[in-house]
Amino acid sequence: MKKNLGPFERLIRLALGSASLFFVFIQPEWGVTEGIVAIVGLFLLLNALSARCYLWRWLGIDTRASAQCDFSQASD
Q1: What is the CA radius of gyration of the chain?
Q2: CB distance 1 to 51 below 8 Å
Q3: Residue 73 lies in a domain
């Protein structure tokens, strides 16, 4: 699958994923909520590091700057 996340979105996902995992690991006890937050945080980190999001692909969203400014198929 080709990359579909832009640099700003990757930075946001990296920050949210890191903050989520930090929040989970400072908790003295884990429950269902912490487990869900840990899974979501892990997926956000993986998305940020790989620049790929399967949900965005399924929805047809591409936030890379080169994908937004592609006028090569425009005709008169």
Answers
A1: 16
A2: no
A3: no
